[in-house]
Amino acid sequence: MEREEFTGHADGLWDVDIAQLFGAPMSHGGNEPPMAWAHGKPPPPRRDPVYEELPNSTGLSNQDISYERKKSRAKITRVEVNAGFDDLLAALRLPNSRKNSRAKIIQYACERIRALESENERLKQQLNATPVHHTAVATTSAPTSLQPNGTTMLWIPCSITPLVSQPPPRLVQLPKAAIPFNKKPRKTSKTVMATTSSSNLMALVDTCPHVLRFFDGVMLTRIAQSCSEWKRLIVDGKLAYLWEALIQQRWRIPKDEVLLLTRSFTAMYHKWKYLDQSMLLPRGAFTMDESVVAMGRAKGVDLWGVLARRSNSRTTRSVWRDGALSVMQIVELRLVVQNMSSQPVSPTLVSIGVHPFQVLDASYGGHFQPRWIAVNGVKCSIADDSVVLHHMDFGVVSVYVSCPHIEFEEVFLSSARMIQMHCGRGTGSVSIEAQFFNPNREVELGKHHA
Predict the structure, then answer these.
(1) What dotted CATH number matches 291-448?
(2) Which residue of 15, 36, 281, 394 lies most exposed, with the fewest beta carbons within 10 A?
(3) Contact 285, 375 (CB under 8 A)
(4) What angle do CA 274, 279, 281 make, to 5 degrees?
């Protein structure tokens, strides 16, 4: 082994003259031998560079020295964070100027993530819609006229020189009876899902996890499904505070009660996912300890049907109409609407229908007219379509349904089929349908308030 191989590890150990080491007398005085560390003597004490740089360090107290050390470490951390932002600027192809503040850089990075996710979904749909063909045999040169056929092909260049130099194999004829013929099943091509590799944005999220606050729970769940690395980062226990805040914001649950929800799940991410799948009713006015009889969701809008039960469970009410008092069978339903999409929605009260019954309008009196009775958990009284629900906002609409010849509420629930509502969103509209529960099975209402 040559001498240069040890220069990076020995720090001048091989520069000592061997003859000088054998010929030097044993010194017992104050001079330290050249290799004192080899005889078991402790190395000299390590010096603190931060302590040495301080002016008049001998006159400073321990508190001042600790403060200066913290300042030095904070400076190092600040330099590393600035370097990370410089890398992110390079990845995003943004100019490094004073106008590009950190908030703008993070906002632009989030917009790029949303654009990449939409592009990924578009490519997935295009890949699934394209018919699958058989992969052609790869040659030594990549064909230029080959068009993409909907499958993922891997071209590996290989040399054909050994194949040409070898003699052609001899053909041996065997009797036909000795050749078994087994028809192999046709192999189907597998669709390779697109994955997201590690990037500077991943490093930024590791350095500053607060970037994920720009996303809601639905968006974070979709990002976690893109690749295993994002899933590991988002499901990490260090982000439990983020999922806890999302639970409080969506379902209006106090912080001390979040841990009591779904005790079978310890991670906050799994708690949020379970509550989203079970469609927990957000807490607020007219939604506390109520009986949910119907639920449904469509295009980011959730709809619940809550029955306003009476003490005697009867549907008979007195209605004053056209100057006369009449007796009718009426049931009050409270419809809870929550917007989970990115665009604001405006529910239309006139479009509400409860099939196969009739919803009462203003002709039966102002008391039976459909109206908003709560918005974001606060009581109100609004009889028009001026209410606009933004992201994670929810409201409660009170409607009265006429059910002739039905005297009890349970009979009404067994006859009702569906609740329908239309909401305006941008230039279009969204139709939400909430199916009533099957009356033949016992509905576990406790899971919505557990």
Answers:
(1) 2.60.40
(2) 15
(3) no
(4) 120
